[in-house]
Amino acid sequence: MKHSLLAVFAHPDDEAFGTGGTLARYAAAGVETTLVCATRGEAGEIAEGVDATPETLGEVREAELRCAAETMGVQELIFLDYCDSGMAGTEVNQDPTSFINAPAEVVVPQLVSIIRRIRPEIVITFEPNGGYGHPDHIAIHKHTVAAFHAAADGQRYPELGPAWQASRLYYTAIPRSFFRQMLEELKAQGGDESEYAWLEEGGGGGWPDEAVTAVIDVASTVEAKWSALNCHRTQFGPGNLFRRLPEPAVKELMSREAFAQAWPERAVAAPDDDLFVGL
Predict the structure, then answer these.
(1) How many angstroms separate the CA atoms of 66 and 198, rounded?
(2) Residue 252, number of CB atoms within 10 A of its CB
(3) DSSP character string of the chain
(4) Could you tell me which residues are beta bridge partners of residue 175?
(5) Are 64 and 231 in contact (CB under 8 A)?
(6) Structural contact between residues 19 and 48, judged by C-beta atoms closer than 8 angstroms
């Protein structure tokens, strides 16, 4: 039986920054790799020089994600077709069509259906704070965790197919040390250090290094990850923080991706180097 992996995120580009190298690495190794995206990111910003408008952004970002998925070797890309809720505190948060306002009793069965059809061994999604507190990131985390467990319960949603217990649930876990490394690289390039003060505290969050349970070496697929990021032209423009570093330094920073095993919970003496270890 082939290994299988399902990644579930909120917007186009969410998949590339934290897991792009991992998705590409496993896809290249023959793992059946599926990506779910809740929205088309139509409330996002538009980088300078990109041919997109607020009215066309959703369509453009969908195309960008399709480009990234193909670059990473993802076999199936699924959109849940919700609207982007925007950043916390923005007016679009109140729109009844925004993803954060979609009821769990609607979203969770959608994800259960996908899990039971795909039958993944590994499910990956955001950690509880969604990386940096974006409302949609937090929402997809909650719905994915609920669906992960519901899919394994034959008493729930029996009309959606036979129950499926995935072997592991992982959270993306960009460690605090990553932000410290990035800060040092930025300082070495000069410029106004006060602009980077937020990185001192782990990028406004960051996962505790001691709680990381897997670190995947993606040096072999960092070029695919870089190409996937460059597919997201509306988000990865000339003003992006990563553009301020020399490309070799950025790729070195991006050549390891960290995860925290959320189910079954376990502590590890040293992080695993494979999400499928022991399976």
Answers:
(1) 32
(2) 15
(3) ---EEEEEESSTTHHHHHHHHHHHHHHHTT-EEEEEEEE--TTS---TT----TTTHHHHHHHHHHHHHHHHT-SEEEEEEEBP--STTSGGGG-TTBGGGS-HHHHHHHHHHHHHHH--SEEEE--TTTTT--HHHHHHHHHHHHHHHHHT-TTS-GGG-S----SEEEEE--BHHHHHHHHHHHHHT-S-GGGGGGGGGTTTS-B-GGG--EEEE-GGGHHHHHHHHHH-TTTS-TTSGGGGS-HHHHHHHTTEEEEEEEETT---SS-BS-TTTT-
(4) 207
(5) yes
(6) no
In sequence order, which residues have a C-beta less than 8 Å from that of residue 240 and are 6 or more positions away?
47
> CA 19, CA 68: separation in Å to the nearest integer?
12
Length of the chain: 279
pLDDT at 87: 94
Residue range 139-161: mean pLDDT, rounded:
98
**pTM, entire model:** 0.96
The pLDDT of residue 13: 97
Contact 40, 262 (CB under 8 A): no
**Token pair in block for residue 19:** 């897991």
Closest CA to 241 of 207, 215, 204: 204
What is the rounded average pLDDT of the residues 155-171?
98
Report CA-CA distances (Å) from 56 to 78, 90, 97, 185, 260: 20, 20, 17, 36, 36
Q: How far apart are CA 228 and CA 52, in angstroms?
A: 19
pLDDT, one tens digit per residue, over 107-137 is 999 999 999 999 999 999 999 999 888 999 9
Provide φ and ψ at 206, rounded to 5°: 80, 145
